[in-house]
Amino acid sequence: MTNTVPVNALDRHIAPIASQLEKAAAQVISSGYFVLGPNVKAFEKEFAAWCGAAECISVANGTEALELGLRSLGVESGKTVAVVGNAAMYGTTAVLACGAEPVFVDVDPVTCTMDPKALEAVLAKRRIDVVIVTHLYGKLADMAALTLLAEKHGFALFEDCAQAHGAKDAQGRKAGTFGAAASFSFYPTKNLGALGDGGAVVTNDAQVADTLRKLRQYGWTAKYRNELAGGRNSRLDEIQAAFLRIMLPLLDGWNERRRAIANRYSTEIRNARITTPPPSGDDFVAHLYVVHTEDRAGLQSHLASHGVNSEIHYPVPDYRQPLFSDTFASTQLPVTDRSCASVLTLPCFPELTDAEVTQVIEACNAW
Which of 288, 286, 291, 290 is nearest to 256 (CA)? Predict the structure, then answer.
């Protein structure tokens, strides 16, 4: 009987380092430091250095990293924030939480990240205060073009790096260091994932970092003195920081394995009904390996019959979510619409065996 290939397998991911994690947990428990302690401070320093950023401010999760990061750039009621509509509402939710207006921008059909030409068309019609650049699926967006537009039009760039830890351009510049600030998630399935929730914002701006440290602690400027609107209790646990410190030195190797699997898929899946991403270099860390097909249900059923699990990331554009009713009824983003209707995620995680990769490829080619 053929074994089923999972889309992800956290038990396999954690097993090789379980004893180290258990030891780290015991050390935290015995230390008496549980919130904003030495492991948090050390992880913030180490992760900032790994990213190539001056500052890292850890928070409770990736969603609050997005929201508080936007707030640190002055996003509030009356501001407009450009965002893609194919990334599961995460960026849009943060914009709404700030009281700002989301403005949806179409994506590139190959990378599924924001299309600079589509953004330029929006900018010709209205002012945009901040642009959230989502490095979707682990693919670095076209930061050269987007940076030029930011300089020309005077908006701030905010990077959503929740799926792109370590993606970098040809010059070696990593995701998270192109904009005014950038958010990361450490949800367990991420390329760098904790054993619970966690997030962070990185920045090279000392003022932004200072604002974020206040926002994550109730908006305090001094103990029990609340001066900043939008503050809350949003802190990375000491025990999760200790776990992340163990995992960070392993991340480059994990990313290499993810990319090797993705590139096998891109070169060996040969089926006219399945569109694969092109083979990639360091600009892709393969958080998810997503193909497109006009018969998603058919492919998904076929893969299941061949022992291959799959998922859909993401089926509903933000501007078509039920909570908006007909607010964005006039929004027409043809590439986003087609992509959301045809995306399918194949198994891709560091512990996937070569035999399992072959099983996925053969199943795709047999369809």
Answer: 286
